[in-house]
C-alpha cells in the first residue's frame, strides 16, 4: 500500500481512515480485538482487529516477546533505537519477527517496522507526522447500535446454472 492513511491511538483504541471511501473510518479496541466500521450508510461490528491496527493488535496474555537490540539509526530525521522483536503466540505456530526503529524523540514510537520473518513477503510500515499526546476523544466514537457480523446473511456462492446437454447419438 502506498497511499497515505491516518491512524490515531488513545490507550487501547485505534482509529484508521483513508483506506477506502466507504467505510469512512474504523475504530478498533485492541483489548477486545473488536472493530467498528463506520460510514454514512451505518456501522458494522466485527469480532477482529482491523488490518491497519497491525502490529499493535498482536497482544494477549499468553503471547511472549523477545527483544534483541540491534543498534542505532536515523529514520526520517528521527534518532532511533533499532531492535528485533520476535513474538511467540502459543495459538499460532508462525513466529512473528519484526525489525523495529523506535524514535527516541517520540517516546519510543515505532516509526518503521520491517517484516523479518523467514520465507515471508517483505514489507515495511512507515509512520510519519507522528504526534505524541492526548487525542480528541470524539475520534473514537461509533454508533451505539451497529450491525454485527453474526447478524449478516451468510455469503455463499450463487447456484450454478445447469448446462443443457444434447442426447448422445450412436
Description:
- This protein has no helices and eleven strands.
- With 170 residues, it is mainly beta.
- It has one domain (6-151): Clam (outer membrane lipoprotein receptor (LolB), chain A), CATH 2.50.20.
- It is globular, with a radius of gyration of 21 Å.
- The termini are far apart.
Keywords:
single chain; 170 residues; mainly beta; outer membrane lipoprotein receptor (LolB), chain A; six-stranded mixed beta sheet; five-stranded antiparallel beta sheet; 11 strands; 0% helix; 44% strand; disordered C terminus
Total count of domains: 1
CATH topology: outer membrane lipoprotein receptor (LolB), chain A
Global mean pLDDT: 83
Low-confidence stretches: 155-170
Main sheet makeup = 6 strands, mixed
Tell me the CATH architecture. Answer: Clam
Shape: globular
From the N-terminal CA to the C-terminal CA, the straight-line distance is 59 Å
- Please give the number of β-strands: 11
Order of helices and strands: EEEEEEEEEEE
- Radius of gyration over all CA atoms, rounded: 21 Å
- Kindly provide the name of the CATH class: Mainly Beta
What is the topology, as strand order, of the major beta sheet? Answer: 1-2-3-4-5-11
What structural category arises from helix and sheet content? mainly beta
Please tally the helical runs, counting DSSP H or I stretches of 4 or more residues.
Answer: 0
Helix content: under 10%
Determine the strand fraction and express it as a percent band.
Answer: 35-45%
Amino acid at each position: 500500500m502506498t497511499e497515505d492513511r491516518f491512524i490515531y491511538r488513545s490507550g487501547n483504541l485505534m482509529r484508521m481512515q483513508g483506506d477506502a471511501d466507504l467505510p469512512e473510518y474504523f475504530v478498533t479496541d485492541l483489548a477486545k480485538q473488536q472493530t467498528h466500521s463506520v460510514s454514512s450508510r451505518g456501522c458494522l461490528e466485527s469480532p477482529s482487529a482491523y488490518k491497519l491496527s497491525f502490529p499493535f493488535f498482536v497482544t494477549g496474555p499468553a503471547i511472549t516477546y523477545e527483544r534483541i537490540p540491534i543498534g542505532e539509526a536515523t529514520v526520517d530525521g528521527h534518532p532511533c533505537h533499532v531492535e528485533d522483536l520476535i513474538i511467540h503466540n502459543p495459538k499460532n505456530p508462525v513466529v512473528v519477527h519484526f525489525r523495529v526503529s523506535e524514535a527516541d524523540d517520540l517516546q519510543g514510537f515505532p516509526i518503521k517496522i520491517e517484516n523479518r520473518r523467514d520465507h515471508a513477503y517483505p514489507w515495511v510500515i512507515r509512520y510519519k507526522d507522528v504526534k505524541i499526546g492526548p487525542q480528541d476523544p470524539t475520534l473514537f466514537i461509533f454508533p451505539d447500535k451497529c450491525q454485527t457480523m453474526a447478524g449478516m446473511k451468510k455469503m455463499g456462492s450463487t447456484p450454478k446454472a445447469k448446462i443443457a446437454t444434447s442426447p448422445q447419438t450412436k
